[in-house]
Amino acid sequence: IIREEIDRTGQIIMQLQDLGQLELKVSGEADINAELTALVKIYRQSLFLTHDISCELKLDAALPILALNCNLVKQVLTNLIKNAAEAMTEGGFIVLSSSDKINQNGHEYVEIKIIDNGPGLPEAVSDNLFAPVVTAKGRGHSGLGLSICKRLINELGGSIAYRRGASKTEFKILLPRKVK
User: Fold this and answer.
1) I want to staple 111 with a disulfide (CB 3.0 to 4.6 A). Which of 96, 102, 124, 151 is the partner?
2) What's the predicted TM-score (pTM) here?
3) Is residue 83 within 8 Å of 90, Cβ to Cβ?
């Protein structure tokens, strides 16, 4: 698994010569439910365990395999799940869900939600949410994670939204429902 992740990340980095000139192939296939399940399996034994985080999967069993680049989808999910877990220094919960056939403006999408009960983003960050920023996370963090997620989702033809409620943080991703 580690070797596969290193190879996948290496391919994306090789293609990200310049953040301003993102040119990635959008072809391939992505099984969203399988990707979410695999990431949870990895994080339950590592990041979730060390941060005392419980995770619930609410996956739409009817979700089809999509004609999208799996590596791009996995990178976005990895960044968002990792961000949520790292923000919860004193434990918490994460809910990952998928839904099929979401209609927006006459187009069909697949929806992915990452919901957590962490502290959310500081107002200064949420004001410029998807722009590269100086991170408050400290050493080992670039502050580019959300801007890269936004660029990758744009390449896939999707959208991403952030919402902070009284007791939860939510990222909602819509990806085109292009069935393989």
Assistant:
1) 102
2) 0.80
3) no
